[in-house]
Amino acid sequence: MRMRTAFPILCLLFAGLAQAENHTVTVSSNRFSPAQLTINVGDTVTFTNAGGFHNASADDGSFRCAQGCDGVGNGNGNPSNNTWSATVSFDAPGVHPYRCEVHGDMGMTGTITVEGAAPPAFTMNQHGIAGSWANAATESQGVVMDVFPDFYAAGTGLLFGGWFTFDTTAAGGLRWYTVQGQVGNDDSATMAVYQTLGGSFDSAQATTTHPVGEVTFHFDDCDHASLDYSFTDGSGRHGTIPLTRLLGNLACTPTGSTPGNPGNYLLGGTWYDPASSGQGLVFDVNATQGVLFAAWYTYLPNAAADAGAPAQSWYTLQAAVSPGFTHVEDVGIYESTGGLFDQHADTTTTRVGTASLVFNSCTSLTMDYTFTAGPHAGLSGTLDLARLAPVPAGCTL
């Protein structure tokens, strides 16, 4: 099973996403119609003056509207006998009594009741959270993730991540997992953890992928998150890992609206060689900071198909880059040893090889590698890498 099968075809049912609705309140004959209105969080209300000297002013001061609304552009909430309309958005539940300031004492009042939960302060359905994340207290381990917004449907995206870590004992060596699941317009998402075994370095030897647990991501903002994990592989492992973005934020906003053009950041993501089974790389690119980082998820050379988890291997890659780059030489390949799964340990990270990268397009990448030390010492070759999922919107090369 090649790495592309880490994206299983899932039979998923999606609940219909509620769409915001606009409601009209007519202002005329010294009354609001309808005077009592119930709406949902996220809906809007448009007040339309059909005649008379009126405005619509909330008792709590949250809106005051006539020819536009106070505080919104050039809006003017003073009463007016012009034909006017003004729209107010309601983003939180609550009850909003309002009145015409001129005729309120004559009974020209109304109430808007907003039902439903307030929208989350952060959405995971955005490519901006893609990148490398780690806990500084647990050395030489972390998650490099890729996000495909609206992958399944509007408002429902896909998160894929590679988790590089260690066994629970120092003697156990390196371990890696993948996480994959849906993300929505919310700050949290729960998904499966997978382990892929049976592979051999840079070969087509068949692999198998099995779920071994579950994780829940929670994002506080664009630079801070947490990962709750619970393994079902018999190890009994469970806990929470605080995560901090390793490279600077380029494209994340709380609402998911990408600010400007993040440039070569969009060359990051999940790449694999179709000729090599069950292995690949996840890149994080930040040309503004001048850094390219990647985690390479692979296996020991000539590993037996039944070698199990001890045959897993991973490396990290790092290089300096400039804005607009397409070709990167002298990419360091690093091996980390001595770590413990989700624990502090004195790890050692050593450069064990060199790679070069040529981004031929947003979907094609050539990587030459040479190992000079470590378990892969003496090996060299070329990986013809393809992007594993859709090209991020805006990627050009």
TrEMBL record:
InterPro entries: BlueCu_1 (IPR000923), Cupredoxin (IPR008972). Keywords: Copper, Metal-binding, Signal. It comes from the Bacteria. Residues 31-115 form the Blue (type 1) copper domain. Residues 1-20 form the signal peptide. GO terms for molecular function: copper ion binding; electron transfer activity. This is Plastocyanin. The lineage of its organism: Bacteria, Pseudomonadati, Pseudomonadota, Gammaproteobacteria, Lysobacterales.
